[in-house]
Amino acid sequence: MSSVSPFVTPTIPTTELDRVFNLPYTDKVLDLFERFREKKLDDVGIIDFLGTLDQANPEIQKAQSFLASPGNIIPDLSTRDAQLAWAALLAHVSQTLPPAQVRRHKIWSVLTADSRLSGSLGTSARYIDLAVSNRTVTMDWGTPGTWFYFAPDHNHINIDLFFTLAAGFDDDQAPNLFGVAHATAVMMHEVGHSQLTKRFTDEMLALQKEEKNYRDLEKRNGKLTRDEFKELSKVRKEFELRMMVLNAAEDNCVNQYAANQGAQFPHDFGKSLNISNVLLQGSGQILRKGANVPKPTNPVEEAQAALNQLCQVLG
Q1: What pTM did the predictor assign?
Q2: Which member of 23, 103, 142, 248 has the greatest number of CB atoms within 10 A?
Q3: Pairwise CA distance, residues 201 & 153, whole Å
Q4: Alpha helix (H) ranges present in 97-180?
Q5: Spatial separation of the C-alpha atoms in residues 170 and 50, rounded to whole Å
Q6: Could you give the strand order of the β-sheet that contains 138-142, starting from the edge strand earlier in sequence?
Q7: Strands (E), the chain
Q8: What DSSP designation does 138 have?
């Protein structure tokens, strides 16, 4: 006989994925990312998104004032509404100005000077400085949409300021001791690439060489023949697909690298990796769509779905 009282609803176990997905602001973050992806943060879209946030929050009013007349306003990023409002404003600027002008806009200097964001960047820089195996790597904020990546050819780590801000911060550890950005775990992930990713596979290097041969041929002849262009396209597509698999396999390794950094710093990078996975890396969008995810309808889509599943298993 069951010992559970009929008057008590049994607790249904939830996964960490479910827990993060059900956080109060997850839906707002995913909404912002969808608007950004679809380029719907223009002059009308930004007002519409700000209207979905808490209008009683003075920081939202400050952000709206900045939108009307950019000035020397100092953001207070201590609330999720404020973080999302300023992330949306940054995305708005990136969608209404040429890329080269985004860094010169007032919002860029205002946000990069913020103590929460600069502290999170400094946390990653500290680990880079301690990484004796690759002490020459550099890192800096990237404009919205540039994402997080390590470029082996430039020995540089790019940290997308928009996604960092929108993903939010961990709880403050004490007064004036701010919690780091959850995307710092993604930064640690990229630091892991800078330490552990030495080069592309032999097959990928051969494809790069083949692509260069076609580009040289195009320079000599002025253009490629139709068959040559088709072969170049196949080479590029194969490299892209191999990169997907390589990233998925290496991500599994460098995620563990990132999580291990929690032993040296009072922050749970594993927790932040989970939050980043849901908010930034697609799991939340998949859960949001649920049964509405379209099924493959042709061999190309089936192959793409199979590759995506392989990458998920590897990661």
Answers
A1: 0.73
A2: 142
A3: 15
A4: 99-102, 106-112, 115-130, 161-167
A5: 23
A6: 138-142, 156-160, 149-151
A7: 138-142, 149-151, 156-160
A8: E
Q: Which portions of the chain are predicted below pLDDT 50?
A: 1-13, 132, 291, 313-315
Tokens of 153: 């050819």
d(CA 117, CA 239): 35
- Cα–Cα distance for residue pair 182/270, rounded to 1 Å: 10
Give me the pLDDT at residue 183, please: 86
For residue 8, what pLDDT is reported? 41
Strand partners, 156: 138, 151
DSSP line for 74-100 = -----SHHHHHHHHHHHHHHHHHS-HH
Q: Are strands 149-151 and 138-142 parallel, antiparallel or unpaired?
A: unpaired
What is the sign of the dihedral through the CA atoms of 121, 127, 131 and 135?
positive
Residue 291: DSSP 8-state: G
- Alpha-carbon dihedral sign for residues 108, 110, 114, 118: positive
Q: Say if residues 63 and 41 touch (Cβ distance below 8 Å).
A: no
pLDDT tens by residue, 107-128: 999 999 998 898 888 776 666 6
Please name the helix (run of DSSP H) or strand (run of DSSP E) that holds residue 222, with its range, or none: none
Tell me the CA distances in angstroms from 239 to 26, 223, 232, 234, one per residue in order. Answer: 34, 22, 11, 9
Which residues lie across from 141 on neighbouring strands? 159
